[in-house]
Amino acid sequence: MTEILSQSEIDALLEALTSGEMNAEDLKKDEEIKKVKVYDFKRALRFSKDQIRSLTRIHENFARLLTTYFSAQLRTFVQISVISVDQLPYEEFIRSIPKMTILNIFSAPPLEGRMVLEINPNVAYTMMDRVLGGPGIAPNKISNLTEIEMNIMEKMFTNALDNFKEAWKSIIDVSPRLEAMEMNPQFMQIVSPNETVAVISFNTKIGDTTGMINLCIPHVVLEPVIPKLTAHHWFSQQKKEIGSEDYQYLKNRIQSASLPISVLLGTSNITVSEFLSLSVGDIVQLDNKVGEPLVAIVGNEPKYKVIPGSIKGKLAVQVTDFIEEGAEFCE
C-alpha cells in the first residue's frame, strides 16, 4: 500500500526543496524503477504467440468435431469447447491432473513421439455409462477399470482420434493410433520432465455432467511443423485455389449430372365438382393458345421456351428462347 504523508511531513518536504537541501531531480531519479522481466529457464517459452493462436484455431475445430462425434455416440447433449492453450513443462502438466484419471497415449505418424489425451474420470465414466445404456451418471468413487470397461473406452477413444486427423489436415496429414491407456499419471513418461509441452484444455459438458479434457502435445513432436503454425501459412491455405486437376474433375462430375426435364402443355382452373365429374373422353380447355411456345422446366425451375413436334416418330421439342432468371412464371 502507498504510504500517505501527514501535513507536517509535507510542509517539511516543501521547506527542504525551497531551501535547496533536497533536489527535485534526485527525487525523480529515485522514482525510476528498472523494468526487469523475470525469465525462468526451467520453463522456457518455446511456442510464439502466433503459434499458440494457430494451435487454438486447429483445436477449436477439433472440439467441434468431437462434439458431433460424441453427440452421435452417446445420444445425448454434448458440448466441448476450448478454454485455454498453454505451454508449460511436462512435469507441471503431470502435477496438474488428478492422480486417478483416464490417459490415452497415442502417436500420429509421420510426427515422431507420443501425445496424451487426458479425460477427467467424471467425463469418461459418464460416457461409458451412456454407451452401456445408462442415464449418464458418474460414480461417486473412481476405481480401476475392468477389462471390459477398458475395451469399451479404448474403442470409443480410438474412433475419436479420427477427428484429430481431420482437424490437422490443413497442416499435415497424420494417422493417429492409440498405443496405450493408463490411469496413473506417474506411470506415464512420454518426454523428459523439463520438456515444454502445449496443453489444450477443453471444457466438456455431457448432460448434467461437466469436466475437463486435456490434450498434451510435446514441443519436440511439433518441431517438424512449427513453421506451418503461423497466420501467414494458415490464411494462405484458406485462400488456396483449386488446382487444374480438381477443377477438371469437378467440371466432369457436374456435366455428367442428370436433371429431370419436363414440358408444361398449359394450365387450367376447374371447380372441385367439375373435377369429380370428369370421365374418359372429356376435354379440359387449357389457357395456352395454339401456336404459343410451351415452357420447359429443368428440375423445379422454368428454363426454356419450346415448340412441340416430333422426330422419327417420337415426341420432341425445339428450344426457341431462354427464360431469364427471376422472370414471372405462373404454373
From TrEMBL:
Alphabetically ordered keywords of this record: Bacterial flagellum, Cell membrane, Cell projection, Chemotaxis, Cilium, Flagellar rotation, Flagellum, Membrane
Cross-referenced InterPro entries: CheC-like_sf, Flag_FliM, FliN-like_C, SpoA-like_sf
Name recorded for this polypeptide: Flagellar motor switch protein FliM
Superkingdom as given in the UniProt entry: Bacteria
MF terms (GO), sorted A to Z: cytoskeletal motor activity
Keyword Cell membrane: yes
The Flagellar motor switch protein FliN-like C-terminal domain, residue ranges: 253-323
Similarity comment text for this entry: Belongs to the FliM family.
Cellular component annotations (GO), alphabetically ordered: bacterial-type flagellum basal body; plasma membrane
